[in-house]
Amino acid sequence: MNPDPETKLCRMCFREIPKQARKCPECHHFQFRSTLLVYHPVVAFILATTPLLLMWFFVAGMLDQGEDYQLYKDQIAVTETQLAFGSLGTNATVAVIGQIRNHSPVPWENIYLHATFTDAMGKTIDVGQRQEYAFYLPPNESLPFKLSFRREFPESNYVNHAVRVVGAKDARARF
To answer: Where are the domains of the chain?
Structure first.
């Protein structure tokens, strides 16, 4: 059948080809399955797209904004607040000291706290809002906080107060 030991038959067209040939020069069919896999167009496509997919996942991870605070706003509560009065130089101040509790599985940072101060009649006399950049609230934990504002009215006008969280950022997000 194959008298020449230096040749072999092509697996597709059955013509004589050199024994070391990986591909038939006539029909261009690969002779070994491993070679067929290495030079297959799907393998080339996978090798070309893998770096692009990795780069896409990396960029998507960098631009991830994390969980939306609005979905978890009922799970972050301000507890145990009290008023404190003081002065900073010539400026009179009012401060709210309390605890904030995170019942969610998400760690929060850059928490926006809003304080409302009312008089004895229940009329709002002062408000304050502060974003605490350095404040980090781990999941399922409670931490103390302090909000301090310049006071514009006498101490006797500050009868009641309320503090609530109006916004926060997922601490796991990059931006």
So the answer is: 7-62, 69-170
- What are the Cα distances from residue 42, in Å, to 45, 46, 47? 5, 6, 9
What single-letter amino acid sits at 109? E
| 144: number of Cβ within 10 Å | 9
Nearest to 117 by CA among 91, 82, 168: 82
Hunting for tokens 């609230």 — which residue is that? 137
Q: Please tell me the total number of residues recorded for the chain in this structure.
A: 175
Question: In which residue are the tokens 């601490």 written?
Answer: 171
Q: What is the pLDDT of residues 36-54, one digit of tens each?
A: 677 778 888 998 899 999 9
Topology, domain 69-170: Immunoglobulin-like (2.60.40)
End-to-end CA distance of the chain: 72
Burial 52-80 (b: 16+ CB within 10 A, else e): eeeeeeeeeeeeeebbebeebeeebebee
